[in-house]
Design a protein that fits this description.
Number of helices: 3
Order of helices and strands: EEEEEEEEEEEHHEEEEEEEEEEHEEEEE
CATH superfamily of the largest domain: TonB-dependent receptor, plug domain
Shape: elongated
CATH architecture of the largest domain: Beta Complex
Distance between the termini: 48 Å
Strand content: over 45%
Largest sheet: 7 strands, antiparallel
Number of strands: 26
Radius of gyration: 24 Å
């Protein structure tokens, strides 16, 4: 039995607009991009080579172009997640356009096209066709974009995102932010405590079941979690958590979030028999988190920035230790920045850096470890890629 926190969290989220120690950063070749593929045919079903296929998206800050091969097939092997418009152009045929194609992390979508001979009408635009489904990936999981990450109440960390993935069973449940400063144990289809945590292509996995970095949850642009069926870039079984960081664009956009939870919000369901054995639960005495970020242009259509700061603190009682004597405390500060430079029509340069500081005054505090025997933990981590 545990004390139950009635999370009436005073959360003030002003969304101006959603932005669509030792170093832990190991720049391994991890796949965080997505793919578009398909075949182009004419009205009689014959394949069409030489068709110019153009994919346009705010995520690209421009467009990418491919040309169909002799079998009519085309492929975009490396696209950032986002919403795309794809056009198909071949002299003598009507231009065909598909819009609102939503591409998630590590997703492969097949978008075929049928071109009609040119006539009075030169262009065909499809905007209400059935949603495109990834028929090539075998992964079992889910993808959460910025809107879902912000609006769905969780512990606001990567483990909270993992808890929402099909096939994952958490061994501990966050109640009112109680697990925010912990890496919750879990199993994915019977495989316990094995995962890969990859952000912006940087593998931050510590050992086989944890991450060496407490990331800023609100800086994530998209998080993809899967419990099984990952591709070959994941070199262990178990769960995979892959995420990307927000980027700036030609419009200034930002997010401000404040969450506060005092001890008076915490309820108690510890019965008399359990209490008689000395168990008092692990209730929060204080939880508060503040986040602010901003992204926008340094030079329109050329250079953009994103920057964020996050501060989090939790004070939690430890069963067997009177709160007046000592509390478990976690204090976190996190700084994130990402810059994007459109060097040319074909080249984009991206730099990402994240720094985190953790301070835990009573690390190891328990009924068997008194306050004077606990330790002060101070650790600093950073990761970066380009």
């Amino acid at each position: 039995m545990q004390r139950v926190c009635q999370r009436i969290a005073i959360g003030v989220s002003l969304v101006l607009m959603m932005l669509g120690g030792p170093s832990t950063g190991r720049a391994l070749a991890q796949n965080i991009t997505s793919h578009l593929t398909g075949t182009v045919k004419d009205a009689q079903g014959a394949v069409l080579p030489g068709v110019t296929v153009t994919a346009t998206s705010p995520a690209l800050i421009g467009s990418q172009t491919a040309v169909t091969e002799t079998n009519g097939a085309y492929r975009f092997p490396s696209l950032p997640p986002g919403t795309y418009t794809v056009s198909f152009v071949l002299p003598g045929f009507q231009t065909f356009t598909r819009s609102n194609i939503v591409l998630a992390i590590n997703e492969t979508l097949t978008v075929d096209a049928e071109l009609q001979l040119a006539s009075v009408k030169e262009n065909v635009t499809v905007t209400a066709e059935a949603p495109v489904v990834d028929t090539q990936s075998t992964a079992v999981g889910s993808t959460m974009n910025t809107q879902k990450l912000i609006t769905v109440p969780t512990s606001t960390d990567l483990w909270g995102a993992l808890a929402r993935s099909p096939g994952v069973r958490m061994e501990g449940f966050d109640v009112g932010g109680s697990h925010k400063s912990e890496q919750s144990s879990y199993e994915a289809f019977g495989v316990r405590r094995q995962s890969r945590i990859v952000t912006e292509g940087v593998d931050t996995t510590e050992g086989t079941g944890g991450t060496g970095f407490y990331q800023d949850y609100y800086s994530q642009n998209e998080i993809s979690t899967s419990a099984a069926g990952q591709d070959v870039s994941m070199n262990t079984p178990g769960a995979a958590v892959i995420s990307t960081i927000k980027s700036g664009g030609n419009t200034f956009k930002g997010l401000y979030n404040l969450s506060y939870e005092p001890g008076s919000f915490v309820g108690n369901n510890v019965d008399e028999a359990t209490s008689a054995r000395g168990f008092t639960g692990l209730p929060n005495h204080l939880f508060w988190e503040g986040h602010v970020d901003l992204g926008g242009p340094i030079k329109r259509d050329k250079l953009w920035f994103f920057a964020a700061y996050n501060h989090f603190r939790i004070d939690e009682a430890i069963s067997g230790i009177p709160p007046s004597q000592a509390l478990y405390q976690g204090i976190y500060n996190n700084y994130t920045t990402k810059e994007t430079w459109k060097a040319s029509s074909k080249d984009t340069v991206i730099g990402y850096y994240q720094y985190g500081g953790l301070k835990t005054p009573n690390r190891g505090l328990s009924a068997l470890t008194r306050p004077d025997a606990s330790v002060l933990q101070e650790s600093y981590s950073w990761m970066y890629t380009g």
